[in-house]
């Protein structure tokens, strides 16, 4: 059911109801009613939720079991090195960011930055061998 998929996807992302409600511009109580099946979101809110959870509206509505739409962009394999470098750039610019749905603290950003730098260095060195 829609409400079960909604709740499961939110939990997979470690998001709170409050976080998603704030992002889509509704109260936590309204969002909670979507997850309990007491209310249904309008189309605009549904699209917003799908974007936050990185799933298709068809998946949330159980029209499809495929979480994401397939198109030329989605069928390309993700480049983990580029993704890691993008995250590092965000941290180094001290851009506001979230960590599992909550504002990232300075220490979380710092530890992530150190871990990514070490991981990228090790990956680059292993490629040379």
TrEMBL record:
Cited Gene3D superfamilies: lambda repressor-like DNA-binding domains
Pfam families: HTH_3
UniProt entry tagged with the keyword Ribonucleoprotein: no
Keywords, alphabetical: DNA-binding
Superkingdom of the organism of origin: Bacteria
GO molecular function, one term: DNA binding
Domain HTH cro/C1-type, chain residue ranges per copy: 6-60
Protein name per UniProt: HTH cro/C1-type domain-containing protein
Organism, scientific name: Bombilactobacillus mellis
């Amino acid at each position: 059911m829609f409400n079960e998929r909604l709740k499961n996807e939110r939990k997979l992302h470690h998001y709170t109801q409050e976080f998603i409600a704030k992002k889509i511009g509704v109260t936590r109580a309204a969002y909670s009613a979507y997850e309990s099946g007491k209310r249904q979101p309008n189309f605009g809110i549904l699209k917003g939720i799908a974007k936050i959870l990185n799933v298709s509206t068809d998946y949330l509505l159980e029209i499809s079991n495929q979480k994401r739409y397939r198109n030329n962009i989605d069928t390309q394999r993700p480049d983990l090195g580029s993704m890691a470098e993008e995250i590092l750039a965000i941290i180094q610019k001290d851009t506001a960011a979230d960590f599992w749905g909550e504002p990232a603290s300075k220490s979380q950003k710092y530890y992530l930055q150190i871990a990514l730098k070490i991981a990228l260095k090790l990956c680059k060195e292993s490629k040379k061998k």
